[in-house]
Amino acid sequence: MIRAVVRTELAKQLRRPRTWVALGLVVAVPLIIAIALRTNPPRQPEDGRDFFFVAGHSGLFVPVAALLATSHFLLIVVVSLFAGDAIAGEAAWGNLRYLLVRPVPRGRLLAGKLAVVAVFSIVATMLITLTALSAGGLLLGFKVPFVERLAGVSGTGDAIWRLVQATGYVAWSMSSMIAFGFMVSTMTDAVTGAVGAGVGLGVVAQILDAIPALGHLRGGLPTHHLEAWTHLFAPDGSRGDIVRGLILPVPYVAVFLGVAWWWFRRKDVLS
Amino acid sequence: MPLVLEAAGLTKQFRRGVLAVDQVDLHVAEGEVCGLLGPNGAGKTTLLRMVLGLVRPTAGGAVVLGTPVRPGYDALRDVGTLVEEPAFVPYLSGRRNLRLWWEAAGARWEDAHVDEALEVAGLGTAVDRRVRTYSHGMRQRLGLARALLGRPRLLVLDEPTNGLDPGEMREIRNLVVRLRERGVTVLLSSHLLAEVEQVCGHVVVLDHGRVVADSPVAEVLAASGSAYIEVDDRDAATRALATLDGVTDVVFEGDGLAVRLHEVARSDVVAALVAAGIRVETVTARHRLEDAFLELVRADP
Q1: Predicted structure pTM score
Q2: Domain spanning B3-217 has what CATH number?
């Protein structure tokens, strides 16, 4: 029966102009990056971040540049938009009470809504990679450059497989922000508040991460391993903090979703 | 008559300390139209939300169609609702709203009584327009259509005529009467007394979260009343009425007098005026439920 909630929610989201605006944003930015790399290729590797330089020579690496450029803010905003709106949006319209007396059981509504938020968040992340890859391939070709610098990338197929993993990693690294926005969404009728909560968590975590005095505490910030996936393209074949980065969101997601569940099942629906 | 709704000791105290509903007992028998009357802020909406499983009671409980009320309880399938404002997804058409709402519970659209419900809504081709473009009256009618999609056995209507023009209000009253004839039980909250007087057989008056009256409308009316009387000499009439038992209040109103009565017949009042040598030109019964209501609400501190 959760399928009924997922299906109707998907139908609702797909008919919503705002969904297309959000997805349009994650298509536009990689397009701009690909065009910029083509028209104005970076001449020299920049310090610590030579992916833009590499991307300037092969469409295969434009997705890497695009994921790096969007995952720190734009993608956080887009997934928070989906997550923060999920319950608070219905409450703001006043439609939540009508769904609940349909009746759609609260747990089921929450699970269905969360599934749709997850689907759109994954789609948004995939669109970054796909747009960058197609635009990059079209404008810059699919050759594998500097193999000696990108240890382990043996060919086009291998590079694409790594991009799939990188995309999955980036999508999963959004999950703390998604879960937080979703949790706040069950508590308020103000969509902007819930969206802001997701974005705020991402931004504040990155600001704190930039304060060296916080020492080891920074390792627990939900955005700390946001770039660990770049080790998939590391010259020395090391995997860095990828596994740590995969585990990092688990407690955040568990706690935020647990609270959302607990709260929503008991909440007095007054909107 | 079996009870469609039975509530005992329903109480809701919000965290900020407001006692919105205080030990309310409510009985609605099958096939009756029960009016829930009370001034704004009396707790009507909170009471209805508890009955629908939207608000958790602090104490007490309710049984609807044989099922104990919990959040999202199954019997809600047979309950049609309009709670406060009708609300929809604004960027979807009226028809799409109804359909997605209906299907969200896993039901098939073919099983909904769409034509019947849309006939009630009477929206014509507008039903395929975005709800954002609807007037308040259109939303209200679409909300009623949504409430009727499943041919409910119990209809819970919270202020269904709020914000409607007189024509639309009459349409909704007629609809309630038609539904009653079909055997649908209706629980209707309102602060419009004429509305309750016209369609309800049974009235529960709520004030400050408590039930201050629970009886057939006829009984509430019998307990009090008032009259509008036009006489040739208003001052003399006022003096004459002041000495009469059962006259609780006399005020000048328009060209005549508004006289509030308690357990005294209008004919006795006229007789007393005539005996005092005053010519009575017209006597009209006034909104009687309103007086009864104000008396009940006023009596309660």
Answers
A1: 0.88
A2: 3.40.50.300
